[in-house]
From TrEMBL:
Signal peptide per UniProt: none
Homology family: Belongs to the HAD-like hydrolase superfamily.
GO cellular component: nucleus
Domain of life according to the entry: Eukaryota
Organism, scientific name: Podilymbus podiceps
Protein name: Haloacid dehalogenase-like hydrolase domain-containing protein 3
Record InterPro entries: HAD-like_hydrolase_domain (IPR051828), HAD-like_sf (IPR036412), HAD-SF_hydro_IA (IPR006439), HAD-SF_hydro_IA_REG-2-like (IPR011949), HAD-SF_hydro_IA_REG-2-like_cap (IPR044924), HAD_sf (IPR023214)
Length: 238
C-alpha cells in the first residue's frame, strides 16, 4: 500500500552531509598552521572526551544555561587541544575561532552520494520538506553553502527549538510547521534512537538509513531500512 505522505523531514549529519575528513585531521591541520604537531588520532580521542563531557554538563549547546553555541564549541575545541597537550591560551583561542568558522562552511562538509538527487525527486513529487537536526545555528549556512537549503521549507535545529532529538517536541514543532498529522509525515535519518524510534514515538513514519553490515536492531522492519537514500521513493511508493 502506498503511504499517503505529505511531509518528509530529514536529519542532516551522516544522512545528507558528512565530514570531508575525520575531525582529528582538520584539527591537526589547524595546529600545523600554528607550528604545533599533534597526531590526528590523539585529537580525535580528545575531542570525543571533551565533547562528551561538555554535552553532559551543558546539553544542547548550553541553550538552557545561558551559553551561546559559539562559546560552547570554542570551549570544546580548546579542551580538545588541552587534553592533547597544547596549553598556550592565545593560540588555543585563535585555533578554536578558526575551526568554529571552518565548520560553518562547505570547506569541511560534503553532500552524501545520492542526497541531492533524492531531495530533488522528493520535491518534484510535491512533498513538503523540512530538516530536524541536533545542530547549532550554523546549520542554515552550512546547508546553503552545500547547495541543499533550497529543498526545504523549514530548518529546525535543536539550538533554535530548545529541544534535541529524541525529544518528541522537536518533531511536533515540525508537524505544526508542515501543517500535517503525524501519520502523513515520515522522518529520514541514520540514528536508530534519535531519528527512527523518536519519530515513530510521535506517530510519524520512520526510515532508517543504514549501510549494509551496520548494527541490526530487530525492531526495524526491512521495508523501513534504507541501504542508500536512493531507496526512499521505492519504499514510500511500495
Amino acid at each position: 500500500a502506498m503511504l499517503r505522505l505529505r511531509l518528509l523531514t530529514w536529519d542532516v549529519k551522516d544522512t545528507l552531509l558528512r565530514l570531508r575528513q575525520p575531525l582529528g585531521q582538520s584539527y591537526a591541520a589547524e595546529a600545523r598552521a600554528h607550528g604545533i604537531r599533534v597526531q590526528p588520532e590523539t585529537l580525535g580521542r580528545s575531542f570525543r572526551e571533551a565533547y562528551g563531557a561538555q554535552s553532559q554538563r551543558f546539553p544542547n549547546y548550553g541553550r538552557g544555561q545561558g551559553l551561546s553555541s559559539q562559546q560552547w564549541w570554542v570551549d570544546v575545541v580548546k579542551q580538545t587541544f588541552r587534553l592533547s597537550g597544547v596549553h598556550e591560551e592565545g593560540i588555543l583561542t585563535l585555533m578554536a575561532e578558526n575551526l568554529y568558522r571552518d565548520f560553518c562552511s562547505a570547506r569541511n562538509w560534503e553532500v552524501l552520494p545520492g542526497a541531492d538527487e533524492t531531495l530533488s525527486r522528493c520535491c518534484q513529487r510535491g512533498f513538503h520538506m523540512g530538516v530536524i537536526s541536533n545542530f547549532d545555528n550554523r546549520l542554515e549556512n552550512v546547508l546553503t553553502q552545500c547547495n541543499l537549503r533550497h529543498h526545504f521549507e523549514f530548518v529546525l535545529t535543536s539550538e533554535d527549538v530548545g529541544f534535541a532529538k529524541p525529544d518528541g517536541r522537536i518533531f511536533e514543532k515540525a508537524l505544526r510547521l508542515g501543517g500535517v498529522a503525524p501519520e502523513q509525515a515520515a522522518h529520514v535519518g541514520d540514528d536508530y534512537t534519535r531519528d527512527y524510534r523518536a519519530a515513530r514515538a510521535v506517530g510519524m513514519h520512520g526510515f532508517l538509513l543504514r549501510a549494509a553490515g551496520q548494527g541490526e536492531e530487530p525492531e526495524v522492519p526491512p521495508e523501513h531500512v534504507l541501504p542508500t537514500l536512493g531507496h526512499l521513493l521505492a519504499r514510500i511508493e511500495r
